[in-house]
Amino acid sequence: MNNSAHDRWWLATLGRTLIWARLRELDAGTAEVFDSDGATLPFDSVDTARAALMDAEFVEFEGLDESDALERGFSLAEVTPPQARDDASLRALMVQTLGARG
């Protein structure tokens, strides 16, 4: 996959389901978000893209600590951002259901 140093992973939670979004900063200062529906949404800036993600109740994965994760219903040890060789393959991994807690 074409991982970029300008990619940032965001997630939202719904019970034990994680919904991922990838924010990619482009060289021109614009941004795009690859969402869980497989759509790539263009934004005029990274700040605008971040605001849209926050409005949709996403949080940046890199900024989470264990306490934040536990409040959302999972442990950081349980999750890692999805990876695939291309966006078509990645689309199927953008929604993850975590196993039941025992």
From TrEMBL:
Taxonomic superkingdom: Bacteria
The name this protein goes by in its record: Uncharacterized protein
Protein species of origin: Thermomonas beijingensis
